[in-house]
Design goal:
Helix content: 55-70%
Oligomer: single chain
Number of helices: 5
Strand content: under 5%
Order of helices and strands: HHHHH
Largest sheet: none
Shape: flat
Number of strands: 0
Distance between the termini: 34 Å
């Protein structure tokens, strides 16, 4: 039986292919980048009651695009650019995370 809370299939499909879940990737990214990646990786895999598969796929792609557009808007306003690695050092600083 699928664990829809801790390990939903629309986020665990990568584990079969390369040994990681989507959360294993996005927890190392800042929120907007992680959200864009999350929606891209689940696109075409998540079902939603009342929506056909193509509509849900397009919705997830639009959500990813929203976060990417937001990143572009914010990057256009900010100078100088701070590399993601430096941002992650400040934001997460986990001892158990390997780079």
């Amino acid at each position: 039986m699928e664990d829809k809370v801790n390990h939903p299939s629309h986020y665990t499909w990568l584990k079969e292919k390369c040994g990681v879940e989507v959360i294993d990737i996005i927890r190392h990214l800042d929120f907007p980048t992680g959200s864009a990646v999350k929606y891209l990786l689940r696109a075409g895999r998540k079902e939603e009651y009342g929506m056909d598969a193509q509509s849900k796929y397009i919705e997830d792609l639009k959500k990813a695009r929203w976060y990417i557009d937001d990143l572009i808007r914010n990057a256009s306003k900010q100078m100088p650019y701070v590399p993601i690695e430096e941002d992650l050092e400040r934001e997460y600083n986990h001892k158990d995370c390997e780079k």
